[in-house]
Each structure stands twice: as C-alpha cells, then as structure tokens.
UniProtKB/TrEMBL annotation:
Lineage: Bacteria, Bacillati, Actinomycetota, Actinomycetes, Geodermatophilales
Protein name: HTH luxR-type domain-containing protein
One Pfam family in the UniProt entry: GerE
Stretch forming the signal peptide: none
Source organism per UniProt: Blastococcus jejuensis
Comp. bias (Basic and acidic residues): 14-27
Chain ranges of the HTH luxR-type domain: 24-49
Region (Disordered): 1-27
Domain of life (superkingdom): Bacteria
Length: 53
C-alpha cells in the first residue's frame, strides 16, 4: 500500500512511518496468485519477469 493510499484511508501521519509487515500466509497467497495470473511456476520466474532489463 502506498503512502498516499494509507493517508487517504485515514491513517495518522505517525502511522506512515511505521514499518508494515505482511504475514507469511498472506505473502504465500499473493505469490500463488501472481504465479497463476502470469502462468509461471516459481518465484525466480516472477523476479525475472519483473526485472527492468
């Protein structure tokens, strides 16, 4: 979530500087979704696909 969207969601300015952590299951779920949408099979392929080269 970007700082702008956090701010518009009503978070206090102090909250903008706190680190945000995602749970392990949340990350696994996001990775699974990305793999499925891009037709990839592993995280290395995600990194290669996202690389600006």
């Amino acid at each position: 979530m970007s700082h702008a969207s956090i701010d518009t969601a009503g978070a206090a300015r102090v909250d903008l500087h706190r680190p945000r952590a995602a749970g392990e299951r949340t990350v696994e779920s996001h990775v699974r979704n990305i793999l499925a949408k891009l037709g990839l099979t592993n995280r290395t392929q995600i990194a290669t696909t996202a690389s600006p080269d």
